[in-house]
Amino acid sequence: MIAATCALLGSATAALAAGDATAGKAKSTTCAACHGPDGNSAVTQYPKLAGQSADYLLKQLQEYKSGARVNPIMLGMVAPLSPQDMEDLAAYYASQQVARAAADKTLAPQGEALFRGGNLNSGVSACAACHGAVGAGNPAAKFPAIAAQHTEYLETQLKAFRAMERTNDAGQMMRNIAAKMTDPEIKAVSSYIQGLQ
Predict the structure, then answer these.
(1) Is residue 4, in this structure, part of any structural domain at all?
(2) pLDDT of residue 17
(3) Does the reported pTM lie above 0.85?
(4) Straight-line distance from the first to the last Cα atom of the chain, in angstroms, rounded to the nearest whole number
(5) 117 and 87 in one domain?
(6) Distance CA 77, CA 114 (A)
(7) Phi, psi of 24 (to 5 degrees)
């Protein structure tokens, strides 16, 4: 009886803590300046948030707030957010559809080869191994969806991982991979990912 009551209370608490997409939409007005009203940023240096998993988005917001992920703009944006605000924003953006884009056709063959097979000579792992065959990510592992993400944003993040400036990747996985990538490889795979449908 006690175990059942505790389980019931635990599930009720989890339900109360879950994000509310409607509340998140109302709270997203400030975010829209960079990320667009539905999470599809028109500015290529800012990421598209639409369709990203709520768990991944929540992790990023929490890490901006804690300082585990560093960005001066985001630090100011997350400072006033409560845990519930972050849950609500994550739920809202996760409920949106990502806007598709096109890859640079001249870079697509090299980008696809890296995405699907990596580079055996340099030890670069295939992106598809963690982010999925179509770039949909792995929500359970908090690996982001990357399909249709802006090329410029992807390039910036891969270079930040390579330079050890971004350090919020589990087990240094992205830092270890990006450290082996050349600038042309980063550009090609980033462009290919932007065009993933």
Answers:
(1) no
(2) 54
(3) yes
(4) 50
(5) no
(6) 35
(7) -65, -40
Per-residue DSSP letters for 135-162?
S--BGGGTBPP-TT--HHHHHHHHHHHH
Total tally of structural domains belonging to the chain: 2
Q: Give per-residue burial for 127-165: e unless 16+ CB within 10 Å, then b.
A: bbebbbeebbbeeeeebbbbbbbbbbbbbbbbbbbbeee
Domain annotation covers residue 14: no
Question: What is the pLDDT, as a whole number, of residue 197?
Answer: 85
Average pLDDT, the chain: 92
pLDDT tens per residue, range 50-96: 999 999 999 999 999 999 999 999 999 999 999 999 999 999 999 99
Query: Could you tell me if residue 170 is left (phi over 0), alpha (psi between -120 and 50 degrees) or otherwise beta?
Result: beta
Rounded CA separation 20/128 (Å): 31
